[in-house]
Amino acid sequence: MAAACVRTLGRISRCSVPSQTRRTGNFSVQVQLFRGPSRSYGTGDAGFRSRIFSAAPLRGGSRILPCAFFLGAGLGLYQTVKLSFQRQLAAQDSNAPRRELKLTLYQYKTCPFCSKVRAFLDYYGLPYEIVEVNPVMRQEIKWSQYRKVPILMVDGTQLNDSSVIISALKTYLFSTEKTIPEIITYYPELKSKNEKGKEVTEYCNKYWLMLTEAESGKLYLEKDSRKEEMKWRQWADDWLVHLISPNVYRTPREALASFDYIVHEGKFGSFEGFFAKYLGAAAMFLISKRLKRRHNLQDDVRQDLYAAVDDWMSAIGKKRPFMGGEKPNLADLAVYGVLRVMEGLQAFDDMMENTKVERWYRRVEEAAQRHSRRT
Question: Does the annotation count 361 as an active-site position?
Fold first, then answer.
């Protein structure tokens, strides 16, 4: 495991920080840009000089020198502007949108991790197909060794884990050179066993975007915006998501309402749906109590939800519409995606009434719906 992380960190350092050679290459180009017109002007200037000296005895010859000088300077400036314009056009071509990806998302609609991925795909206007997975039999993903959702197929390449999916796609959208198969090598799997002896899979670097220093500078304009985005993306996974189940299954009545919604939105047969609604509600009501103890939640778990949402809104502050500034960043989309799975349930209504999250939530919702191209 340590060796895998060392190899991975080596790849990160090469990816995240451009090499000196790259910068030197750019500097050489700048020097050539400067020297090109200078050589043209110098050659022209020598030619003009020979003619000026031979014509000096002529009447009015004193005016030839300044005219020749300005003419030579004008030609040099023209060549400089022309070359700069050509390079700008070339840069625009290199940043042209890539071809459209074929995306298929395997999901449970009410899963907060799947909701995070949908929020990202919708906001960035990426068309995708949805395959709703039966949570009991999971026949739709029987072909996959990875047995969790979400799974995103990208042109035949399988991406697992919601945060890896989002980071890999964002890297692809913002990078001018990397391919999806290349990008996913920066997020290697690490298999281990938990305290119960069950094998678990984790992914290295899943909150990192694999961009060059120049690309990162264009994306993260504020000094600490990258660190802030990563921090709150991880917070959504490590804390916020664990508040959902204890809140939506808080009472038997809420658990039954939640499973009624799950059965209605999910992929269940009529027989499965009946038993899932009643047996599932009873089971999750009991499990939610265990989750409350595991995560050291208060007796009234709503208070933990309100406190978490208040922490999020305090981090955004009063001067920004989003954590990303004028538009949502990956942390905005992650938190929105997690909270969205409670819509239509009592926990969601209570959260809206007892916190100041609603205006931010509606802004992100509007931004995501405006770009959505779901098929």
Answer: no
